[in-house]
Amino acid sequence: MIEYLRYSLRTLAHHKMRSFLTLLGVIIGIMAIVSMVSVGAGMEQALRKKLEDLGSDKIVVSPRIAYGTSSILLVDADAEALENLQGVAFVSPIYTVTSDVEYGGETQLLKVLGVDPEKAEETFGRGASSYSLLAGRWLGRGDRYKVVLGYSAAKDAFPREVSVGSRVRLHGREFEVVGVFSKTGDRDKDYSVYTSIDVLREIFGAGDRLTFIIIRVEKGSDIEQVRQRVEERLKRRKGTDKGYFVMTQQEIIQSVGSAYTVVKVVFGGLAGVSLIVGAIGIANTMIMNVTERRREIGILLASGADRMHVMRIFITDAALLGIAGGAAGLALGYGVSRAINLAAERYLGEGVLTTSVTPELAVFSLVFALLVGVVSGLYPAYRASRLEPVEALRA
Amino acid sequence: MAISLRDVVKRYRTGKVVVEALRGVSLEIPRGEYVSIMGPSGSGKSTLMNLMGALDRPTSGSVRIDGIELSGLSDRELAVVRRKKVGFVFQQFNLISKLTALENVALPMWFSGVSRSRRMRRARELLELVGLGHRVHHKPSEMSGGEQQRVAIARALANEPEIILADEPTGNLDTSSGMEVVRLLEELNAQGKTLVVVTHDTQFGRRARMRVKMRDGQVLEVER
Ligand SMILES: Nc1ncnc2c1ncn2[C@@H]1O[C@H](COP(=O)(O)OP(=O)(O)OP(=O)(O)O)[C@@H](O)[C@H]1O
Ligand SMILES: [Mg+2]
Predict the structure, then answer these.
(1) Residue B27 has what DSSP assignment?
(2) A interface with B, Cβ–Cβ below 8 Å
(3) How far apart are the first and last CA of chain A?
(4) Most C-beta atoms within 10 A of its C-beta, which of A150, A259, B155, B196?
(5) Residue B109 belongs to what domain range?
(6) ∠ CA A271-A277-A282 to the nearest 5 degrees?
(7) Hey, which bits of B15-100 come out as E strands?
(8) Which CATH number fits the domain that encloses residue B143?
(9) Radius of gyration of chain B (CA)
(10) pTM of the predicted protein model
(11) Is there a domain that residue B47 lies in?
(12) Binary contact (A306, B80; C-beta < 8 A)
C-alpha cells in the first residue's frame, strides 16, 4: 500500500502542472462544498447556542409572527393561568419594547426587556450559558425605576461608559443602574436593558400585555407533557391554538435544525454538481493518462507486474489525486469561510453570521474527494490493466 | 533446457490484414547458453524474444521456460514466470523516467514482494556491479545512453533470473558504450546466466556460441 502511494507520489510530482489542472475541478468543488456548508453550519450553531441559553427545562409561549394569521395578544391573566398547572415550577411573563435610552446627553435606541424584578435572576440567571453579573446586583423584589444593563449597552452604546450607580433616562424617565451583565457574546442580549415589567408597561401604556412567557418545568416532570398542558390551557382561554406557539427548547432546536439541513443540502448539492464535473475531469485525464503511459505500463509488465499491480497503481494515482484535490479544496474552503466570517463581522456586526468548518465537514470533504478520485479512476485503471504487455511496449 | 520452442506460430491481426510473424519455429536453448539471433528487419526476431520471455502468447505451438509449459497459464501466472525466470533488456532502455536509477532497478523486486530495505540494498549492489555506484540517485534523463542501458541490465538482474533476453541492446549506443554493454552481458553469461541477444551487429552476433539466423518468420539455420 505504502509502495503504491510512493509510486503515485512520483507520478504526481512528475506531472505537477497536469495533476494540478486535473484537480482544479475537485479543488473548486470541495472548496464550494466546504465554504457553503460552513455558512449553513455556522448559522445553525449560532441559533442552537442562542436557544440552548434558554435552558433545557424551559418552555416558551410566544405569539406567532406570521402572515395571514393575526397574532394573539398575551396578557397577565394568561401567564397567571399557567402557574397552577401540574409540573410548572415557575412562570415569568416578559414584555419587550425598543426604547430610546439617554445617557450623558446621547440617545440610543435599545431593546428593553421588562421582567418581574423578583423573578429576574431565576429567569435569566440560570441554565447553561446564562447571564452573570459583571458589577452590581440583579433586579430584586420591589425594584421600580432600576435597570440592569447588558454588557455592550453599558460599555459601547454611549460615548461614556455607564457604571453601576449612574442614572439613565429611559423614554424620559430616570432609572438607576443597579447592575451590569458580563459579555454573553450574543449581540442582541449584550445591547439589551433589563427592568421591571410593571414600570415598563406603565411608561409605554401597555396595560397588561405580554410579549412572551417563559415557563420552567418542575424537576422530574416530563417537559413534553407539561408543554401539552400549557397548550391546552391556552387553547381553552384563547379559543384557538392559532396565532401563538408553545415550544420546548428541544423542539425549537429541532425545527431550526431541519431548516438549516435544507440550507446545507441545497448548498451542498450545488457544490456537488461542480464535484461531478471535477470527477469527469479526473476520469478524462486518467484515460488520457493510460494512453500516454502505455509504455510505462509495458515496462511494469515486463518487470514482472501482473494486471492487479497495474490496476492498483492507477487506482492509487486517482485516489491520491482525489485526496490532494480534497485537501487543497478544504484549505481554500476554510479560507473562504474565514473570509466570510471576517467580512460578516466587519459589515454586519459580531455574531450575526458566523461560519463554521466542523471536523465532520473536514473529514467528509476529504473522504468525498477520495471517493470521487477512486470512482473516476476505476474505469481508466481497468483499461490500463487490460493492456497486453507487447502492445503496451510497442507504444 | 532453459527455453524450448516447438512449432511456434504467431499471427498478428490488424484489421483485416493478418501478418504471420512466426511460421513454425522450433528451437532448444540449453541452460547457460550464449545465443545470438540475427536476421533482416521484420523477420520475427522481437516476436520470438517476447514469446521466450512470456511477454506474449503464441498463436499455436508450445513454449517452455525452465521446463514450464506456458500454454495453460493464466495472465497472472505468466507474470510470475516473467518475474522469476527472465530479465529483459531493450533497445530503447525502457527505464521509467520519473524514477531514479536505484528505484528503476528495485522495481521488479517490488512485484515479487521483497521488503523495501532489502530491495534498496540489492539495487545498490547491482548498480555497483554494473559500474554505476555513483549514479544511484540520477534520473534516466540525467544519464548517457550507455549508463541507462547498464541500469536496465541491473534491473534485469534484480530478481536473479536464469535467463537474460536482450533485444538489440547496443542498437542505440555508440561503439564504446556498446562494447561496454556487450562485455557486461558476456560476464553475466560467464557466471552462468542463459543469454539471448538479438542484434544487427554481425561482430557482436558472431561472438555467441549458438547463432540463430532468421528470415520471414522462420529459423534459417542454427550455428554452433
Ligand atoms: N503487435 C503487432 N501487430 C501487428 N504486426 C506485428 C506486431 N508485432 C510485429 N508485427 C509484425 O510481425 C513481423 C515481425 O516483427 P518483429 O518485430 O518480430 O520483427 P524484427 O525481426 O524484430 O524486426 P526488427 O529487426 O525491425 O526489429 C513484422 O512484419 C511486424 O510488422
Ligand atoms: Mg525487433
Answers:
(1) E
(2) 3, 10-11, 13-14, 295-296, 298-309, 388-390, 393
(3) 28
(4) B155
(5) 32-58+75-223
(6) 125
(7) 17-29, 34-38, 60-65, 68-69, 86-90
(8) 3.40.50.300
(9) 17
(10) 0.72
(11) yes
(12) yes
Residue B92 has pLDDT above 90, yes or no: yes
A355: number of Cβ within 10 Å: 26
Q: Which residues of A touch B85 (CB under 8 A)?
A: none
Helix (H) or strand (E) holding B194: strand B194-198
Whether the Cβ atoms of residue A301 and residue A392 lie closer than 8 Å to each other: yes
- Within a domain: B69: no
Cα distances (Å, whole numbers) of residue A343 to A49, A125, A337, A348, B23: 21, 33, 10, 8, 78
Please give the single-letter amino acid code of residue B109: M
Query: In this predicted model, what pLDDT tens digit does every residue of A6-29 receive, in sequence order?
Result: 999 888 888 877 778 778 878 888
Following CA atoms A377, B75, B51, B85 in sequence, which dihedral angle do they give, to the nearest 10 degrees? Answer: 100
Q: Which parts of chain A are beta strand (E)?
A: 58-63, 74-75, 88-103, 106-115, 133-136, 146-149, 167-170, 173-181, 192-196, 209-210, 212-217, 244-248
Segment B163-173, tens digit of pLDDT: 999 999 999 99
Q: Name the domain count of chain B.
A: 1
Q: Which triple of cell numbers denotes residue B101?
A: 536509477
- Compute the distance between CA of residue B188 and CA of residue B200 in angstroms, rounded to an integer: 21
| Cα–Cα separations (whole angstroms), residue A144 to A98, A138, A205 | 19, 13, 16
At B185, the amino acid letter reads L
What's the CA gap between A263 and A274, in Å, rounded?
17
C-alpha–C-alpha distance, residues A212 and A363, integer Å: 42
Place of cell 512528475: A14
Q: Dump pLDDT digits (tens) for B199-216.
A: 999 999 999 999 999 999
Closest CB to B108 among A304, A306, A389: A304
Residue corresponding to grid cell 555513483 = B134
Closest Cα in chain A to B108: A303
Name the residue of B16, B37, B43 whose CB sits within 8 Å of the most ligand 1 atoms, as the mutation to test its pocket: B43
* Burial of residue B176, with CB atoms counted within 10 A of its CB: 0-12 exposed, 13-18 middle, 19 or more buried: exposed
pLDDT at B113: 93
